[in-house]
Amino acid sequence: TFDCFCLPLQTDHLQPNKDTVFFRDGVRRIDFVLSYVDDKDGEKKQERRREFEANLEKAGLELETEDKSESDDGKTYFLKIHAPWEVLATYADVLKIKVPFKASDIPHSQDVPLEWISKPFRLPEHIMHPEPDYFTSPFDKGKIDFFLINDKDTFFPPSTRNRIVYYILARCPYFKEDRKDKDKKGIKRLLSNGTYTAAFPLHDCRYWKRARNAECESERYNLYKHWARFLCFYKEQPLNLIRKYYGEKIGIYFAWLGFYTEMLFFAAVMGLICFAYGALSYDDNVTSREICDPNIGGSIVMCPLCDKKCSFWKLSSTCLSSWQSHLFDNEGTVFFAIFMGIWVTLFLEFWKRRQARLAYEWDLVDFEEEQQQLQIRPEFEAKCTDKRLNRITQEMEPYLPLTSKCVRFCVSGATVIFWLSLIVACIIGVIAYRLAVFAAFASIMKDSPTTKIQLVGSLITPQLATSVTASCINFVIIMILNFFYERVAIWITDLEIPKTHLEYENKLTTKMFMFQFVNYYSSCFYVAFFKGKFVGYPGNYSYMFGNERRLRNEECDPGGCLIELTTQLVIVMAGKQVWGNIQEALRPLMCNWWVSRKGRQQPENQYSRWEQDHDLQNFSQLGLFYEYLEMVIQFGFITLFVASFPLAPLLALCNNILEIRVDAWKFTTQFRRPVASKARNIGAWQEILNVVAILSVVTNAFIMAFTSDMIPRLVYLYTSGQGSSMTGYINNSLSIYSISKIPSDSMPDEGVSPAWFNNSVITTCRYRDYRYPPGHEKEYSHTMQFWHILAAKMAFIIVMEHVVFVVKFFVAWIIPDVPSEVKARIKRERYLIQEYLHNYEVEKLKLQLSTSFIVEPNTENCTELCTSTDKHEVLSECL
To answer: Which residue ranges traverse the bilayer (predicted)?
Structure first.
């Protein structure tokens, strides 16, 4: 009643069709497939397989083997596994799988008004796979007649069947009963030592065509046609069908990704408005006009930006970069930073509500506790030989001693610190590259008196060339380090031996995010908060690695470091997204084409279903983990540094629209069908998103205060006495230094200075700071304006953080995590389930007593009652 299985069409005069999901008898469904190869050194493997398969049959599973002569390569055997009803019922009881027992009588909420607006974005109901609303309860084998079982063959859907079979495979031993090596069990170990080459459930049919029986439509085909194709990018996702075919864990991921993409639309629109404001206010930018003015910026001589190889230069050479900086560094950016702080809160709070609704609809409300107690990892059971009593289940279970746990934790922590230090070392290396290469670019890109060369120089400045090349090198280093981090994080997590699958994923998630956070964001943090902050001033510059190395710390452009942070963010974020999509799409496609090139030459009905799926890529247990990690890293880019690039949400939106369909295409066409598993929520990623959301408020406040030039401009606007005009700001923001006092080690070499520079006429140069000029009694010390600006920056940070945090906490407080309607339905359902179970037990007991009285009417204590004519009186008295 809950699934429609397509029986294979067979005729006597044709070859039996191998493109099927059934045994040769056409009745028993294939719930799982194991493959193996007989090699010359395979005596031990053969023995393991014999014992393993014998134990599987003892567990009640039914097996059928396809000989290697029937395979395309002529050497691969396929072991098909079927779980009969008794096995399914037994383990459904063990796993406490919830199944329907009565149609729900709780009325549904009314349809949303103006639903016609969203009609073009909706899929047909037969594709969305709406299911009747049932009351569900954990399956109990002793109460078969309590549940709605119309057909035992279809009562458990394929996703539940393959989940149960995998549970048996993961715990089935491959040793004889009289042997002592009790830890040798589980399909994972057999796969790792090469006894079996693959283990997977089957797709229901080919993705590009319907099932052979027209009465039953293929779910895989529906997913491909209405979900995986890019032309469906504007359509809603068939979450119920995804959940039914792949399991709740994958369904929750796509629900989260879709909701995240929907919320990105509002952030992208607001970012586009802020960018448009910067472009429309282009002509009102007095600061850039002064820089580009030949009488103002063209007459200001700036001090060299590096020692020996850098010359004196005119401020007007940064004309183009100052205009570019205004696009992102304007009054609208402050508003957008505050908006994103509130948007993050709304996104997280509304997702909690959506997640709670899905948990109720998919029967996941009480799942987490069951998973923690029942699904202990086979690796934990194998490695932890000590036993102790579980206070909850009152059964003996394996545990890891405290001393061993502490030792493993220390080794894990030391390894994490070492690899994080390696990331920092790589970033320091990139910074050293920036310092060394800047001088080289500066010597190549000398200023020229001709207008044509000046225009080219303004387009490609030493700062821009250094920033772009350093960002590209940093991106390459990030990709290389990621390759090692994945393996290190998995090794560390395996070393800690987590007890449950949920605990394993949470620990791995935390470690991988720590690695990726430092790896991806450290360069952005450097540009945002360290570059240009520890430079010094002419005659007293600060050097990296000491004065002997002569690597002078980088200075910011006169327009600020914000444009460089924007460049860094765009290169790393866009590069990661482009590379990730290419890698996700091309790698499985090329691998599958290469593996299946022989099989596709077979007749269609002879290219067996198990070989088709065997030729696909394996979806590992951590496959979904990498999908989450990719999106959470993107979430960090659009929240932590969004004040420097308001178009970041728009880039993320475009990427995610493509990401959903690429992931759907991979799952439907390029990967084997994963083992269905349950998940109540997105796990540890929820807490990571909360931490990133809080940290984003702090980082954006500091970016606006210290990286942007917004606060100095506002201080000048309200204290200069110029009214509402910014005229004179550039001259005010630059300090003066006497060229004669510049040390010889810092002066440009002969021939480096441009032709227009005459040291007998030009005696001073300017630099970006607020210091007293030469000849003042406090020569080259900070002016009061510097301290006023610093106080204004700190005040801005405090005010912005408090405003955003107050709004965040208020919004989080007024929006409950679980909708009131869902709370009421959960309470109502629990109450009714208790009532139905109680009535069921009472009726069952009445029937037993009634039957007992009829069979044994002469029972000593009930002789008189049994002769009574009132049957209800008899039952009530006996009860």
So the answer is: 253-280, 332-351, 417-444, 464-485, 512-530, 631-653, 688-707, 794-815
Q: What is the pLDDT of residues 265-304, one digit of tens each?
A: 999 999 999 999 888 887 778 888 888 888 888 888 988 8
In sign, the C-alpha dihedral spanning 177, 181, 186, 192 is negative
Asked whether 559 and 318 are in contact (CB, 8 A), the reply is yes
DSSP 129: -
Tell me the β-bridge partners of 397.
Answer: 388
Provide CB contacts within 8 A for 523, sequence distance 6+: 427, 430, 471, 474, 568, 572
The SS3 assignment for 81 reads: strand
Within 10 Å of residue 781's Cβ, how many Cβ atoms?
A: 10
572-577: long-range contacts at Cβ-Cβ below 8 A with a sequence spacing of 24 or more? 572/471, 572/474, 572/475, 572/478, 572/520, 572/523, 572/524, 572/637, 573/634, 573/637, 573/648, 573/651, 574/651, 575/472, 575/475, 576/475, 576/478, 576/520, 576/633, 576/634, 577/634, 577/651, 577/652, 577/655
Give the closest residue to 666 by CA, choosing from 573, 574, 590, 578. 590
- For tokens 């693959």, the residue is 198
Look-up: residue for tokens 């931490």? 691
B/e letters for 459-486, b = 16+ CB within 10 Å, e = fewer, are eebbbbbbbbebbebbbebbeebbeebb
3-state secondary structure of 337: helix
The DSSP 8-state label assigned to residue 206 in this structure reads -
C-alpha closest to that of 551 among 433, 710, 728, 423:
433
Instruction: Quote the pLDDT of residue 5.
Output: 43
In single-letter form, the type of residue at position 271 comes to G
| Gap between the Cα atoms of 630 and 577, Å rounded | 9
- Hey, what amino acid is at 844? K
What does the pLDDT read at residue 558? 60
- Measure the CA–CA gap between 73 and 75, rounded to whole angstroms: 6
Tens of pLDDT, residue by residue over 402-426, are: 888 888 888 888 888 888 888 888 8
Q: Please report which residue ranges of 596-641 form alpha helices under DSSP H.
A: 609-614, 623-640
Torsion of CA 504, 509, 515, 520, to 10 degrees: 160
- The whole-angstrom separation of Cα 589 and Cα 585 is 6
CA 262/CA 255 separation, integer angstroms = 11
Pairing, β 313-314 against β 387-389: unpaired
DSSP string, 343-380: HHHHHHHHHHHHHHHHHHHTT-TTHHHHHHHH-B-HHH
Could you give the C-alpha distances from 108 to 361, 770, 825, in angstroms and in order? 12, 67, 10
Task: Give dist(CA 471, CA 467) in Å, integer.
Answer: 6
Distance CA(438)–CA(382), nearest Å, equals: 57
Contact at 8 Å (CB) between 378 and 185? yes
CA dihedral 296, 298, 300, 304 (to 10 degrees): 150
Region label for 780, one of left (φ > 0), alpha (ψ between -120 and 50) or beta (otherwise): left
Tokens of 397: 């279970």
- Helix, strand, coil percentages in the chain from 3-state DSSP, rounded to 5: 60, 10, 30
Torsion of CA 847, 853, 856, 860, to 10 degrees: 140
> Tokens representing 9?
């069409």
Q: Which residues contact 715 (CB under 8 A, 6 or more apart)?
A: 785, 788, 789, 792
Q: Residues 96-119: pLDDT tens digits?
A: 888 888 877 776 655 445 555 666
- Cα–Cα dist 119/99, whole Å: 32
Nearest to 663 by CA among 631, 634, 621, 615: 631
Question: SS3 letters for 89-114?
Answer: HHHHHHCCCEEEEEECCCCCCCCCCC
Distance CA(667)–CA(246), nearest Å, equals: 9
Cβ–Cβ < 8 Å for 645, 328: yes
The model carries a pTM of: 0.85
